[in-house]
Amino acid sequence: MKVIIIYGSPRHTKSASYHVGYKFGEGLKRAGAEVEEIMLCKQKINHCQGCFTCWTKTPGVCIHKDDMVENLAKFREANLAVFATPLYIYHVPGLMKDFLDRSLPLVEPYLIERNGITSHPRREPSNLQKIFLISVAGFPELSHFDALVLAFKKTFKSLEYVGEILIGGAEMMSKDDYQNSYKKLYDLVEQAGFEVGKNGFVSMETQKMIADETHFTDKQIQNLREVATKYWDALRPKDYSNIKIESTEELPLKITDDGMASYFAGMAAQYNSKTIPELSSVIQFNLEGNLYYLIINDNECNAYKGAHPSPTITIIAPTDIWMKMSTGEIDGAKAFMDGLYKIEGDMSLLLKMDQIFSQK
Fold it and tell me: Does the predicted TM-score (pTM) go above 0.90?
């Protein structure tokens, strides 16, 4: 089987749709398929001019001499075409839309009846028989994909629509630091690709496991909205220099201290004052009743044991959950959506902590 995977994201390999499409392709290869990737953001593809020259003066040949010439040849030669795309305004990005528009030379202008509706006949015999759709979106509900799925089924109504993998709430999937959090999902996606390569379809069992892994409960959707709001707010300029810090009479913790005291002293030592200049804040931790806090002021960070009277943010979490988030073993945003820990105060600071506490 010859397969082409067409990637429509302008983010190249940093996109969530690429991560999913790549794992699907690995599964296809494992089943013995010959897989070729087409990265649209790296190509020159002009807009369709609507001139119909490919139907009249030069049948089957577009006026544009760009990368679509080779793309259409690969499209005809492939047995299966996989479209991996993010959801943009309930459809595809402009890159993918240009690809679809420029596929017009593959059909004749004549009107025929197919399955009870009017259609265009294919211009010439082609190996392409099957279509598979992969799409991701920032919105969590799968209903946002309805128009996209319908559009692909209509666009390729003369071919066999094999199925789709649709993943909502996928913005964090594009971040390098969170890739380990999606390992189980990626393994399932690879299995889906293997099944399509071997059997021509994704088994009901694998479909269910992917759905279970990506499903959002009402509570998770509510948490996602909160995290997303704080995330985008955190990216906007904010003045942290005018926060008044109440002093403490306690002595700072040292790395040579025991247990969690040493951990927080080490965390304070990782403070990077260049991330947010003139940052003033108090980060309080409540780990199963064990209280610690960090005071950031005057380009310094010190750790203390106990409760601060006026924290900027309070993180309430089981110790093991916080440690797993610290090491990147689990995704902090996903853990919050799952209700594994709570936040009180300025959540935008939490979203910047990987940058705030980094090697200088």
Answer: no
